Amino acid sequence: MVGWLRKGLKAIILDQGLNLFPARLGIPRAIQVRFPLARAAWMLRPRAACCRVLRGSCRQFEMNKILSRLASYLVMIPLVVISFSAHPKDEGLAMRHYQLVTEIREDQWPVWQDEDATPEDLESALAQLAGALDHLARPEVEELALGNSYLHYRVYNIRRDMLQIEAKMGRPERVVEQLRYLRHFVVAAGDHARLLEELPKSVLDHPDVQRELAAWRALARVAAAESLATPYAEDLPANEKIAGVSRIWAMAREYFVHFDARPELDWDQAYLEAIETVLATDSTADYYRELMRFVARLGDSHSNVYPPEELSEHFYARPPIRTQWIEGRVIVTGVFSDRLRALGLSVGSEIESIDDEAVAAYVRQHVAPFQSASTEQDLKVRKYGYALLAGPSTRSLTLSLRQPDGSLQTIEVERSGYTDVEWPESFQRRQLDGGIEYLSLDSFADGRALEAFDAAWPEIQQASGLILDLRNNGGGSSWPGYRILAYLIDEPAVPAASWTRRNDSVRQAASASVQFHPLSVRPIEPIAEDNYAGPIVLLTGPRTFSAAEDMAMAFAVSQRGVIIGQTTAGSTGQPLMFHLPGGGMARICAKRDTWPDGSPLVGVGVAPDIEIAPNVSDIQAGRDPVMEAAMDWIRERTD
């Protein structure tokens, strides 16, 4: 009977094309009400207990249809779900507790957020949330929460909801009770302002609430360092200049995760030197340039300084071309303005000098000292590519070009003012010879990569092979890449292992130390049983950065295909952003990512299975040897 039901439920789910996260597939409401133990057993079930739960989008999700088709199984489901007795690993068990209380919490949202909710409705919602807190307070659950941040912070989330309900019911004493508990848990920058917007005036006017909110305001002010986020000025006073470099020093000292990768760096001594340097500046532009130089000493691509918006045209204006370090030369690999083509710039041109300085000397003096990079290959991308021609929009560049025919030409190029720029599409799909599908994914900054992949999915399913091009992907969020990979694997893929600094003040009082804490990592699950099964090639290069490297590493671990090209940039992690005096910002890498076995990724990169780099002749002839190798590899496996 149980085996038949499992097959039946799975067939229904697959028939509906259901792809969703585990928390979204619960047993019907009727069973939740009548059989609370069955509900708990369902939520704490092992992964294989009933049917395979498929993660992914809900774009084909028709819950009403599915629930109606499940209705005929209502009598049998409780018998099934309460019979499971497997013992999953702690991480899986922690997430099942998390899913249980999350579903209880989400069930109450439409109740207490309803403007027409009755006092009885609100009391019922409070009781349900209190029950969830009781569950989280069980000793075995609290122990699991110590190693799982998702489960740990569910206490905060649920009490935050209870705070809203108590406020809606006009109970200031209960509001104070919740606020006090939450304050001892965590207060984030901006929380105080949000509470002032959310709480009704009748509650805000209560003296006890005002005293508690004053305590929140004090902690939020510390978290945000508001007094240091001063506005832009042409030059900053000395105290603000010292404050800015001190904030960077302090944030890195407390949160930066790669000091051990820079054994030659004495960060405290660098700070003392930077104080003298910034005090010698006489403009905010020069001040921020020195802050860039200071942070560059960390040698990390996810630790940077960003000047205020008022100075963006001073630092970042550059002509619409792309350059690359190839065979010891700076080669133009893309020209995106007809105006520049008319001047003589073309793909394959070599830049020999800039403003009458040889390229190497120009880069050494004006570019390299201000670039933060984790690897030599990423540093080359930055100093010979992104930053090479960047600078004040009001100042033109004199370029000495060696043309493909060997002739020498000198041209003057403006950094800004182009109205005919045509940048290449970030997401390009085309079908190659032999039914091979090609898709370039140049960014994971938003959902467009997924949209491009989804649009190409019908053709990909029929393709003889698939080439995914990440060579120009500068990253963004890891999720789009993991999501795409979930379409291509038939077994769970393990992503990066992650750590962050643990700054336990009690432990520090006993002995000053640098401590690391592992973060919870969940495998990337296949989305469906009919995932693409053909040969796959992933193209990478030194511009493959951050979240794109996360995908490349997970792809390599999955052994689902082959990586062709060059080693990736070698930098990923979670940057911690913060404001600086004068209107700028900085970020410090606060998460350390490695290969699942602990081998370093940052400072190394993801190496290709087949290494191929374009040479100058390839660029000048318009050949793409990396693409050619990818097509050959697929043909060898399909012909």
From TrEMBL:
Key word Transcription present: no
GO molecular function, one term: serine-type peptidase activity
Keywords attached to this entry: Membrane, Transmembrane, Transmembrane helix
Pfam families, alphabetized: Peptidase_S41
TM region(s), chain numbering: 66-86
A Gene Ontology biological process term: proteolysis
Record's keyword annotation contains Translocase: no
Residue intervals of the Tail specific protease domain: 394-613
Cellular compartments per GO CC: outer membrane-bounded periplasmic space
Protein name: Tail specific protease domain-containing protein
Organism (species): Wenzhouxiangella limi
